[in-house]
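Please decode residue identities from the backbone states below.
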């Protein structure tokens, strides 16, 4: 008790005594009755004052804390596929019901797939396994406690960081209890199929296939690629214990527009236990995107050849170089017009573009007649000083019309443009910012905007040829620069329909990956808004089954993320507020289950996990040995903790009780003796 509080208590006692003596002893008959009443009055007043002061007392309590035993059970489909689900359930029940373990430990049960949860119901239906995430979550829960982990699993992880390496940082002991066949099985497997999601009509595309083999003898198999019943590729592969992995990259030709599904397979070998992993399906969407592009200029410049070569690196695009007069005389239909350093000769060209509602790409520079360009359109105004300036380009990472995450031009040579500020008068997005002598400005060097039913891009500088050459010097090819230009051209050749509802999605999804669809909705001023309700309705085109989900609001728009959809073809409809705005799409979900690709437990990784965490490995026949180890392991024992608690007088309630009793007795005595 603090000294100050003690002084208050002593003072309260003296005050209570003085008041009691004054009321019952001073100037009264000093008989036993009055002394008794004075004593009761003293107790009442003193109790009341103590309750007001509310002194606090320290109290030490001891508590025995048992260590936690975390039981983490793999709830993924691979457990049931390996026919180890009954063993997993029996092992879990045996541990939970063991009285000796429950006496020593606070036993907690968890199940995990892609995520971990504290649920005692084991279904073995999770389509993904993330062992690393599960162990990290348990460790974070019991970070400051003793919590050995019994990990009941086959050790096969399908997503997440490799737990073999992450486990070196764990401070909890892990005892892997291995489910799965430890006997070595001969197996052929399609390990990976890598292919682009899109290709163009009548073009060839590569398919990278990695096939693997587990076995003690040499063997052969036929690698085939089919589309429906049509055999597109076939070759014989020879495997051996030394040559157990083979990569092949056959080339296929896209001959039909739309999503085409293919199947890669290896013919099974004798006594092969798992034949599901001998095949893997993939799909690719074929796009008919042949586009004529007019490149108009009145001067000769290396940029012209650079633009033509870069754009035509996509075989579906043809660039024709014109003078303004030749373009106006041409009867070709163009999907995009590029105006390179326009001057007064471009006046009729601008008029045709506006009349035909064509998308455009304007490139300015030292030969641009800026006074003319400012007067011919009202979208932007470039200050012209007849002086040039070199600008470094800095890519806008937040550019939303297409992804710029893979591009950085900070090390590229500067581009040359007119010295002066730019005033953009329409809503726009900056693609590349100006940087002068290492200082980033907020002025655009390259920007895009939409208007009515069209789109436009403005580059305020010349010497793009230097960027393409720099790309070659860095990578020994032009792919980085050409890919960037391809995205820009792709954006420009698409017509903007002033859609207020924009939906982004992939056309093809692997059967084991979640389906993700994102959307944005714009108000009448074409500003993003989150005030609408978006719903998405799916229809399985094979079964005619329909189902509907609300889309979730995120910071950047709306999203839907679901898993476990059956393989097949689906159409969908996204609607706003009951149907005021709609968007339609189609997706293909491939028949592939990654949890069915395993034939054995991953014993080496689980053994390394045990070594890294000072644990031990047990197989599914050693449940009794595991329990005995957990009971006898002296590293895990109960801890007696002294808990210091501060208790106030009010919490004890003794003072209040004493006050009530003393007042009651005083009243009774006074009433009985006729003093009231």
């Amino acid at each position: 008790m603090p000294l100050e509080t003690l002084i208050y208590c002593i003072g309260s006692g003296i005050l209570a005594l003085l008041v009691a003596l004054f009321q019952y002893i001073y100037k009264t008959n000093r008989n036993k009755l009055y002394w008794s009443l004075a004593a009761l009055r003293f107790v009442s007043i003193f109790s009341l004052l103590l309750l007001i002061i509310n002194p606090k007392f320290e109290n030490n309590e001891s508590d025995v804390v048992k260590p936690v035993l975390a039981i983490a059970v793999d709830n993924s489909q691979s457990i049931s596929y390996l026919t180890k689900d009954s063993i997993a359930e029996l092992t879990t029940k045996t541990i939970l019901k063991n009285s000796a373990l429950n006496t020593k430990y606070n036993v907690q049960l968890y199940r995990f797939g892609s995520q971990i949860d504290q649920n005692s119901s084991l279904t073995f239906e999770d389509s993904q396994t993330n062992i690393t995430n599960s162990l990290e979550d348990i460790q974070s829960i019991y970070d400051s406690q003793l919590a050995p982990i019994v990990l009941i699993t086959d050790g096969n992880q399908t997503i997440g960081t490799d737990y073999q390496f992450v486990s070196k940082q764990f401070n909890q002991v892990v005892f892997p209890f291995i489910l799965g066949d430890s006997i070595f099985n001969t197996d052929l497997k399609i390990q990976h199929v890598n292919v682009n999601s899109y290709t163009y009509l009548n073009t060839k595309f590569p398919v990278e296939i990695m096939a693997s083999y587990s076995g003690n003898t040499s063997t052969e198999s036929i690698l085939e690629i089919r589309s429906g019943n049509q055999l597109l590729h076939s070759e014989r592969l020879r495997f051996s214990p030394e040559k157990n992995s083979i990569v092949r990259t056959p080339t296929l030709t896209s001959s039909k527009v739309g999503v085409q599904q293919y199947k890669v397979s290896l013919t099974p070998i004798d006594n092969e236990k798992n034949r599901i992993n001998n095949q893997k399906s993939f799909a690719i969407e074929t796009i008919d995107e042949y586009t004529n592009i007019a490149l108009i200029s009145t001067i000769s410049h290396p940029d012209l050849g650079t633009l033509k070569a870069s754009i035509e690196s996509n075989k579906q695009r043809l660039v024709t170089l014109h003078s303004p007069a030749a373009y106006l005389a041409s009867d070709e239909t163009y999907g995009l017009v590029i105006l390179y350093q326009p001057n007064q000769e471009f006046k009729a060209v601008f008029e045709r573009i506006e009349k035909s509602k064509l998308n455009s790409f304007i490139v300015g520079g030292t030969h641009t007649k800026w006074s003319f360009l400012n007067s011919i359109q009202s979208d932007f105004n470039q200050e012209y000083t007849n002086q040039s300036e070199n600008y470094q380009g800095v890519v806008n990472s937040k550019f939303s019309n297409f992804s710029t995450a893979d591009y950085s031009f900070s090390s590229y040579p500067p581009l040359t443009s007119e010295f002066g500020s730019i005033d953009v008068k329409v809503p726009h997005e900056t693609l590349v910012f100006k940087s002068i002598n290492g200082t980033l400005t907020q002025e655009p060097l390259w920007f895009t905007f939409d208007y009515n039913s069209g789109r436009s891009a403005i580059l305020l500088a010349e010497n793009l040829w230097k960027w393409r050459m720099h790309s070659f010097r860095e990578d020994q090819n032009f792919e980085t620069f050409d890919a960037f230009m391809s995205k820009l051209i792709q954006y420009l050749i698409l017509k903007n329909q002033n859609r207020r509802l924009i939906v982004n999605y992939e056309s093809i999804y692997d059967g084991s990956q979640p389906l993700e669809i994102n959307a944005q909705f714009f108000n009448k001023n074409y500003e993003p808004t989150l005030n609408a309700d978006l719903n998405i309705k799916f229809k399985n085109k094979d079964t005619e089954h329909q189902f509907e989900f609300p889309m979730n609001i995120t910071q950047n728009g709306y999203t839907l993320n679901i898993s476990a959809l059956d393989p097949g073809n689906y159409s969908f409809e996204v609607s706003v507020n009951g149907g005021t705005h709609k968007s339609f799409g189609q997706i293909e979900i491939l028949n592939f289950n990654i949890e069915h690709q395993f034939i054995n437990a991953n014993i080496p990784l689980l053994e390394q996990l045990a070594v890294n965490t000072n644990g031990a490995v047990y197989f599914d026949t050693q449940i009794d040995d595991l329990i005995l180890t957990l009971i006898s392991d002296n590293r895990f024992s109960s801890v007696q903790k002294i808990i210091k608690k501060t208790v106030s007088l009010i919490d004890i309630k003794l003072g209040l009780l004493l006050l009530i009793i003393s007042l009651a007795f005083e009243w009774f005595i006074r009433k009985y003796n006729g003093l009231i």
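Observation: The chain has 17 helices and 38 strands.
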